[in-house]
Please model this.
Amino acid sequence: MVIVIAALLVLGWATRRQHLDPRWWRVLGPLLAAGVIVGYGWRVMTAGVIGANIGAGLVVLFAGPVVAALLLWSLAYSIRLSRCGHNASPTI
Model:
């Protein structure tokens, strides 16, 4: 948790100092959300239970497509940002 907070502080500082284009937060936000979902999903899937682990099935069923969509969004938007010029603004 300390590393996440430190990384967000560094990225916020870089954005404020204009070293990081604020449009890249549209890539970083979904990646952060996907990381949180995967972290909590891993915790649920590896939980020690007696009997069937219903939570693991639910994580795979519901969180899997959400994480895939977030990663595809981040990939597509990062490609779009890197292809348009430094001063050009993508329209979404």
